[in-house]
Design goal:
- By secondary structure, the protein is α/β, with parallel strands linked by helices.
- The protein has five helices and eight strands.
- The protein has two domains: about 90 residues; about 120 residues, OmpA-like domain (60s Ribosomal Protein L30, Chain: A), CATH 3.30.1330.60.
- It is about 45% helix and about 20% strand.
- The longest helix has about 40 residues.
- InterPro entries: Bact_OuterMem_StrucFunc, OmpA-like, OmpA-like_sf.
- It holds the Pfam family OmpA.
Length: about 230
């Protein structure tokens, strides 16, 4: 074998290795996407009062199972609202496509926030304004999203509490306001201007679950305003 051509056998080997690496990178990327979507979809289903539902992904296409026929459509709607999902199939409900992403910057940001908080709600210890570890992580995720938000947008931090039989509505509203204040202060400390953040306590008037007394109701939600 002449010295000038002795290296030519490496060319097909390099092509094979490059192709294998590209396939591996694509597979790993798809796996991460499916894992992320599945986690956020499961969180959204639990927050919607459907913790027994099972969701699997093939790419961005979801399949929901483990729900009663009368809940199939609702489960499909919940998963379809998770950002990044393309289609959803659920037994007893027609296959549906996820809604198109909004073009308005405010609505796009709201959809992104809703997707983040569906997968990881801002939750609190019972009867306190102390964030759970999961709530701490959710606030951090929200800060990451809001860090690049247009400066003409403002954020209402709405606090909520779980219902307590015979509870005092005034005490419920006060606790919900304290929860909103806790999160609002975190956002301001992270660099969001004070005049862009407001805190509101809704008490137990806006439950997320049918009974209103579950951990998903001890929460804070963020509403994007302005940008018109």
């Amino acid at each position: 074998m002449s010295g000038g051509r002795g290296w030519l056998w490496l060319v097909p080997l390099a092509l094979v290795v490059t192709g294998a690496l590209a396939v591996a990178a694509t597979w790993l990327g798809a796996d991460r996407i499916e894992s992320d979507l599945a986690g956020r979809a499961r969180g959204a289903l639990a927050s919607a009062g459907l913790p027994g539902a099972t969701v699997t992904f093939d790419g961005r296409d979801a399949a929901v199972s483990g729900v009663a026929p009368e809940q199939a459509r609702r489960a499909a709607d919940v998963v379809a609202a998770v950002e990044g999902v393309r289609t959803v199939e659920s037994p007893g409900a027609p296959a549906r496509e996820a809604p198109a992403q909004p073009r308005n910057p405010r609505d796009r940001l709201q959809a992104e926030l809703d997707g983040v908080l569906a997968g990881q709600p801002i939750t609190f210890q019972p009867d306190t304004a102390v964030l759970t570890p999961q709530g701490e992580q959710a606030v951090s995720d929200v800060v990451d999203v809001l860090g690049s938000a247009p400066t003409d947008l403002e954020f209402e931090v709405g606090g909520h509490v779980a219902r307590v039989p015979g509870g005092d509505p005034r005490a419920a509203r006060e606790l919900s306001r304290q929860r909103a204040d806790t999160v609002a202060r975190r956002l301001i400390a992270a660099g969001i201007a004070n005049d862009r953040v407001s805190a509101v306590g809704y008490g137990d008037t806006r439950p997320r679950t049918p009974t209103g007394d579950q951990s998903a109701d001890r929460r804070v939600e963020i509403t994007v305003r302005g940008g018109d």
